[in-house]
Every structure is written in structure tokens, then in C-alpha cells.
């Protein structure tokens, strides 16, 4: 049922959103040099790496340094990138990942290998399910970049404070997951994005 739900919703979103996607692509090209899409390898179900897609929101080659971004204070983010990130529009291409079966609409957000290598055996259980576009952690940390921007050492704050809490929320989700829970998370995600934009 969950996989069928993912396929149907992804097809609808991609079909309806195609004109907007083309418009966004044009604005990205006009705003800065580089590719329209950004591909980053993330760790998915069963500890298998897969290419996650996003609209590019940073200047080309910006990810060769830190993998962590610090909100509006991060000079690597383009003007249109700030807007796309604020409303989570940069995540739109991940519906392709969902359609391919690499992701689900709801599930633990996929992490990069660098941080997965720090997981404890208990935390590795989050890799037993498909990663998702949104989850409990996405709602709680909708302003994650701002939190990191306020830290003297963003990476250490992420590793020792934010990441463990996210993983605890993900393990909670795995224990109680159902279509009803997924629908609640989707609605709460929209509410969090709207509240954030005010």
C-alpha cells in the first residue's frame, strides 16, 4: 500500500508540477552558471548508496568544502537558491527518486556516507526502510540551517546534537509507521513550511 501510494502521488506531483519545474530551471540558469540539477550520493535502504536529486541552490563546486550549510549566512547559496530552500522547492526532483523506488514520500531523510559511518548499531536500523522526502525530523528541524548558523562549530553541533535527535525520531517512526502516520507527517510538513515562511 505504501509503495502504491508513493507511485500515485509522485506521478501526480511530477505531472502537475512539470510547468513550474521548467520555470524554476530557467530561473536557475539565469541566476548563476552551472547545472540545473544537483546530484549527491546518499545512503538508502539496506545501506546502499543512491544518487539523490535536487534543484541546484548553490554555486557550482560549492560542496567540495563542508557538506553542512548555514542558512542565509552561507555565501555559497545563490539568490534563487535561498528562495527554493526556504519553501523546500529544491526537493521537487526527489519525486523521481521516489518513482524509481529509491525513496518514499515519508521515511528517514537519507544521509551522506560521511555521517552514516558514525552511526551506532542501533542507529543503523534506520536503514531498514526506504529513506523519505520528509519525516518527523524534517518537521522538528525545519530551521536546521539557522540553528547551525548560530553555532561556533556547526559540524560538531550537527554530529553530537542534531543528528542523534534526528535518528531517535526516525527510529520512533519505524516503530509506528502506517499510512495514517504518513499522512499526518505530510500535513505537518506543509504546516511547518508555511509557518516558517511567515
Short description:
The chain is 52% helix and 10% strand. The strands form two sheets. A two-stranded antiparallel ribbon has the order 1-2. It has a two-stranded parallel sheet with strand order 3-4.
List the helices and strands and how they pair.
Elements: H1 2-31, E1 37-43, E2 49-55, H2 79-86, H3 94-100, E3 104-106, H4 113-116, E4 132-134, H5 136-140, H6 144-149, H7 154-176, H8 179-197
Parallel strand pairs: 3-4
Antiparallel strand pairs: 1-2
Please tag this protein with its features.
198 residues, mainly alpha, two-stranded parallel sheet, 8 helices, 4 strands, globular
Folded structure, characterized:
Helices cover 52% and strands 10% of the residues. The chain is built from 8 helices and 4 strands; from the N terminus they run H-E-E-H-H-E-H-E-H-H-H-H. The radius of gyration is 16 Å and the shape is globular. The relative contact order is 0.15. The chain has helices at 2-31, 79-86, 94-100, 113-116, 136-140, 144-149, 154-176, 179-197; strands spanning 37-43, 49-55, 104-106, 132-134. It has a two-stranded antiparallel sheet. Strands 3-4 form a two-stranded parallel sheet. The chain starts with a helix and ends with a helix. It is mainly α. It has one domain. Helix 1 (2-31) runs antiparallel to helix 3 (94-100).
